[in-house]
């Protein structure tokens, strides 16, 4: 069995917008937990549980980003980036829903296939798409900068 390394959170994933960064950390932790849970074998019940939890949190996160986009006229001022961002969210959701539909029909995905898709999608989305949105928000003074929490 191919082992998957967890995503190690580092400063390259920070967008500078606290709400987005906090939610990204939850998503990374969720993927890392899924990796651990699937290490002992893939079952339909486990895949259903993981994809349900992941889709639920991802939709919440996408809603947060899209609210920030709407509140800050992202569509009017960066139309192509706004459209691409929303399309990536829809594409992710459709892929996870398709995996869930397949599970109902008895088609299991492998740990490698599921985590390969999820990890690659999330890292690419954060590093490219979300960083563009964050730069826009910060430029407009709408993003609350991420800062280390007082200890």
Domain count: the total is: 1
At the fourth level of CATH, the homologous superfamily is Hemerythrin-like
Distance between the termini: 41 Å
Coarse morphology:
globular
CATH architecture classification name? Up-down Bundle
Whole-number mean pLDDT:
90
Low-confidence regions: 146-151
CATH-assigned fold name: Four Helix Bundle (Hemerythrin (Met), subunit A)
What is the rounded Rg?
A: 16 Å
Q: Count helical runs.
A: 5
CATH class: Mainly Alpha
Strand content is: under 5%
**SS-based class:** mainly alpha
Major β-sheet annotation: none
Estimate the helix proportion, in percent: over 70%
Question: Quick gist of this model?
Answer:
The chain is mainly alpha-helical.
Description:
The protein has 151 residues and is an all-alpha fold. The chain has a single domain (17-33, 40-139), classed as Four Helix Bundle (Hemerythrin (Met), subunit A) (Up-down Bundle). Helix content is 72%, strand content 0%. Helix 1 runs antiparallel to helix 2. Residues 146-151 have low confidence and may be disordered.
Keywords for this structure?
151 residues, mainly alpha, Four Helix Bundle (Hemerythrin (Met), subunit A), 5 helices, globular
Layout: helices, strands, pairs:
Blueprint: H1 18-38, H2 44-71, H3 74-77, H4 79-104, H5 111-139
């Amino acid at each position: 069995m191919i082992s998957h390394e967890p995503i190690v959170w580092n400063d390259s994933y920070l967008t500078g917008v606290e709400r987005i960064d906090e939610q990204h950390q939850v998503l990374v932790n969720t993927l890392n937990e899924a990796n651990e849970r699937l290490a002992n074998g893939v079952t339909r019940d486990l895949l259903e549980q993981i994809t349900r939890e992941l889709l639920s949190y991802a939709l919440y996160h996408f809603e947060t980003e899209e609210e920030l986009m709407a509140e800050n006229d992202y569509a009017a001022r960066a139309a192509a980036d706004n459209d691409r961002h929303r399309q990536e969210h829809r594409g992710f959701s459709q892929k996870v829903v398709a995996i869930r539909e397949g599970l109902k029909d008895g088609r299991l995905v492998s740990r490698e296939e599921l985590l390969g898709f999820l990890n690659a999608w999330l890292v690419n989305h954060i590093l490219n798409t979300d960083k563009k949105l964050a730069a826009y928000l910060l430029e407009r003074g709408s993003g609350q900068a991420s800062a280390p929490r007082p200890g």
